[in-house]
Amino acid sequence: MTRQLVSIIGGKDAPSVASYTSINPARTGETVATVGLADAETFAAACRTARNAQREWARVPAPVRGRVIASIGRLVEANAESLARLVTEEIGKPYAEALGEVREIVDTCDFFLGEGRRLYGQTVPSEMPDKNLFTFRVPVGVAAVITAGNFPVAVPAWYLIPALLCGNTAVWKPAEYAAASAHALYRLFTAAGLPDGVLNLVFADGSSTFAGLELALTEGTVQKVGFTGSTAVGRAVGELCGRHLQSPCLELGGKNPMVVTPDADLDLAVEGALFSGFGTAGQRCTSLGTAIVHESVHADFTARLAAAVASAKVGEPTGDVVYGPLLDTRFAERYEEYLDWIEPHHTVVTGPTGRITQDNPRGGFTGEGGLYYHPVVVDGVRPDDQIFLEETFGPLVGIATYRTLDEAIELANRPGYGLSSSIYTTDPASAFRFREGIGAGMVSVNNSTSGAEAHLPFGGNGKSGNGSRQSGMWVLDQFTRWQSMNWDHSGRLQKAQMDVAEITPDLDYRL
């Protein structure tokens, strides 16, 4: 039976003005859900509802809010397999990866449940007698969270869990093509006891969401925007927030480099390249973009990677495969445009490109009737190539060559993204030189560009984001603001920097 889904505002179903069909990308003839899409006014109404609920939610003691987060974690854990199966059905992510994504939510809850007892402020010594200074973390208010669908449950949790813990309310707009997964996660959150209006779910297309966000910012009902998606849309969201003197949390695309040094363990480097380049069909913001390989090991690395890709299992995501279909038709169409960036001076070392069909087959393929595409490794990539400079969201990895480590670092920074990066080396000096020179927010040594842990800051710079960070204690700075308080109990007005006791030194003293 097809799921019928609509937005939920204040605990009640909200009206729709259009519909969207979420399909199973592994079998495009199967409908996962029919989704009612809201308009801009409905999005703005959700923000008003969240604002009205925020004051009471903030009054709930932080340790109690922490227990709600703990309950969310236990509920997700108890429903992990069902939620993971739904993720696999709706976006084609291999089940093992989907289960890992769900585990990420549990890990995030386990970290933040304790933050309810650790939202520390500080007492600060005053320069005057009989006066005390304090700092407090206070919630920002209403968070509007807009997420992509390649990680349909983990990434939203990175925003929502700390936002709710800190005493904010939220309006969450997930990707339409991952609506069923989002609706399921929403139900798990609310089952933990969240009052109506604290978390609101809005399904809408991009233009309606942007217009609704603009209206809400104008009305003053949103105090923090979290956005995960493309660099182009993130730039527009950032400009909109800037006009309202707000600093959004932007987690955008990546063109993530992997540097392979002459002393690298090539088998390990190939394993990392395969996972980060082709896991989730290359549709992660942290997916490997270009392997930058030293000229002395370039041929060996390329041959090994081509062999690994040739033997990688592609197909039905419920099975043991490296990757399944692309997320949705729109991504398949866009990926075919990226394939047009392959130029005559490039060499495709992995065989066929494009969609896997009977006329364009792949050995060992286990899928049927879905948005499945051949994995592609392109050798001979140059620094001015579009395929080197721009994100290619799909199963495509480029290989470039370098001579010196300084050249490798320069190449790694050239595209202007700055999310994730990695270096494979057995030389500590090379590892630290790379870390010092790379502009990415995240660096891996002898590990792939993909992979995050719930207690480590996640985020990028340059075209990958505005320097904001998710996960760990660092995300608290996104969802709280520092408030300072001074309490003068002297019974008289003491003026800072003016009524300060002076102790006079003898600066002319010499031994």
UniProtKB/TrEMBL annotation:
Signal peptide (UniProt feature, chain positions): none
Domain of life: Bacteria
Ranges where the Aldehyde dehydrogenase domain occurs: 19-484
Pfam families named in the record: Aldedh
Active site as annotated: E251
Keywords associated with the record: NAD, Oxidoreductase
Coiled coil regions, renumbered to chain: none
GO molecular function: aldehyde dehydrogenase (NAD+) activity
EC number, UniProt record: 1.2.1.3
Enzyme class name: oxidoreductase
Record family assignment: Belongs to the aldehyde dehydrogenase family.
Subunit-structure text: Homotetramer.
PANTHER family, per the entry: ALPHA-AMINOADIPIC SEMIALDEHYDE DEHYDROGENASE
Protein name (database record): aldehyde dehydrogenase (NAD(+))
Organism of origin: Sinosporangium album
